[in-house]
Amino acid sequence: MCSIIGYLGLNEAAPIIVKGLKRMEYRGYDSVGVATFSNDQIMVRKGVGRVIEVNKTVKLEELSGNVGIGHTRWATHGMVTDTNAHPHPSSTGEVAIVHNGIIENHEELKNDLQKNGYSFRSQTDSEVIANLLQYHYDKTRNIKQAIVDTVAVLKGDYAFVAVFEDGTLAAARFHEPLIIGIGKKGYFISSDVLGFVEHADDVIYLDNKEFVIIRPSGIQIFDFEANPVQHQITKVSKEFADVYKGEYAHFTLKEISEQPLTIPKSGDNTKLELDLAADFIRHAKAVYITGSGTSYNSALVAKFLFAKYAKIKIEPIISSEAHFSPDVFEQQSILVALSQSGESADVLEAVKIAQNSGAKIISIVNIMTSSLAQMSSIAVGLGCGPEIGVAATKSFTSQLAILYKIVEKICGGCMGLDLSEVAETVRKELSDDSKSKIKEIAKRLKNVSDIYILGRGIHYPIALESSLKLKELTYIHAEGLPGGELKHGPLALMDSNTHVIMINPDDSTYSDTLTSAREIKARGAKVIGISDKPSDVYDYWIELPRIEESMYPFVEIIPIQLLAYYAAVEKDTDPDYPRNLAKSVTVK
Ligand code: F6R
């Protein structure tokens, strides 16, 4: 989703900002822009497209000045156009801003500002911040006061960075992330540490309802009531710097390939929290689990695991639905919140609703500095390193690994969990030989318009996760179904143009799923079997390596991740940055 960055220092700002924006590309965006301050004026360049393309056409990097702001936009209000791209200057051009989030009362504010003579160029909600800052600045010529007066009337969740006509940089945070970086040659402010990680490892995490004013003489932080705030400087983890693709063609393939290493390490940096999480869940009156997208699919796997092995009922709630059933949470209950980014607005809202009902929060999260981690009683870290590809891959298996570890602790080792064995099995699935077989099948999906993925029991959430991966990466319509539901409707869709993937490991679901495969085949559809047992019913067979029954979910998802990735490459879509999607969905 939108990324924002600001720089003030000894170097030229624009090249640093452009590089920072490139690093944050994984968050998802459709347009890009930079503004710098030089020779007493603010200059803006922006356009629709990738950072590299817009930079080529409008020469973002060539803007001069040691102070600047930059933005990648993911459109919410207004079409994807050059004018709607950020930065937005105020109507007099004395202030320019970049913004992440949504200003809910923008129409009302815009009307008032227009009556006061301020004009607007874009269709965005964001431009109102520029003119509002200008309006208040015009009254007092005092930047601090202008910010206090501006945030007092803004409604919605937002983070913005502004550059003023005297070269001052300022930024405010309200429920959207904002991090200050302090480097040897300047100050940074960004929605993501990746924006400046190679220049600064000393950081300050702004809290909600705080703003910062950055000048060459130093930084000052205030709360929204204008009181000064003291903050500790913390060190950012160096692993964030390691975000290059290396030998891989795409981040997505790199991240899929990292799983033999990331699975066994999951949660290792927060072992104490993991023990505490198991203890909290064991003693809770009721346990709920929430997440969005892939994280919700992990929650569904957890439901099966906890019931079967820990003998604990745990209720999955889709985060975006929590708002519509706020009464489900009981007192003294636990909500386990799953999120790679820790910034998904839907997940944060579900957490707030549960907290209002007296629930305690355990989060399982990759970004330990995220809003979710900060809101939780216990935060368990995935520890799988930065996930840049928009589609979740290694974070999914790390979520599973942590959930398995918790269940194993509660049930006293009843599963005989051995994640190194899982990792070794996954490594085999990633061998060149396995990959080339999957590549061949991927070629056949190129012109397919519908894929159904069937699984029963614990394999049903894997079918859902598989359909999500196929949709995101290949843009093919894909639907995950519980195998038994086929005859209750979807069988009507089966014909020779349909492809069906059967997740069919050799366990108690095997023979029922094989029967479904025969019913499908009889209607002319092509069947892809993912199984450790061959069958003549499969048109294509992806062989699952043998593994302990409870561990199947790990090994089932790997070939699908590869299949979706290779089909995307076949179709010439960009697997790392699927259209219309953002890595961190910070709006509702
Ligand atoms: C799927 C995907 C999304 C995310 C969802 C939640 O590949 O990436 O569906 O899983 O947006 O994101 P987090 O886990 O960051 O809360």
Radius of gyration: 25 Å
Largest sheet: 8 strands, antiparallel
In terms of per-residue confidence, which ranges show pLDDT below 50 for 5 or more consecutive residues?
none
Please state the structural category.
Answer: alpha/beta
| CATH class placement of the largest domain | Alpha Beta
Q: What best-fitting shape do the alpha-carbon axes yield?
A: globular
Helix tally equals 17
Helix content: 25-40%
The small molecules bound here are:
fructose -6-phosphate
Total strand segments? 24
Fold-level CATH name of the largest domain? Glutamine Phosphoribosylpyrophosphate, subunit 1, domain 1
CATH homologous superfamily of the largest domain, by name? Aminohydrolase, N-terminal nucleophile (Ntn) domain
Output the strand order for the largest sheet.
Answer: 3-2-4-1-10-9-11-14
What proportion of the residues form beta strands (DSSP E)? 15-25%
CATH architecture of the largest domain: 4-Layer Sandwich
Give a structural overview.
The chain is α/β, with parallel strands linked by helices and 588 residues long. The chain folds into 3 domains: 3-241, Aminohydrolase, N-terminal nucleophile (Ntn) domain (Glutamine Phosphoribosylpyrophosphate, subunit 1, domain 1, 4-Layer Sandwich), CATH 3.60.20.10; 246-417, Rossmann fold, CATH 3.40.50.10490; 430-576, Glucose-6-phosphate isomerase like protein, domain 1 (Rossmann fold), CATH 3.40.50. Helix content is 35%, strand content 24%. The strands form 4 sheets. Strands 3-2-4-1-10-9-11-14 form an 8-stranded antiparallel beta sheet, with helices on one face. A 6-stranded antiparallel beta sheet has the order 5-6-7-8-12-13, with helices on one face. Strands 16-15-17-18-19 form a 5-stranded parallel beta sheet, sandwiched between helices. Bound molecules: fructose -6-phosphate.
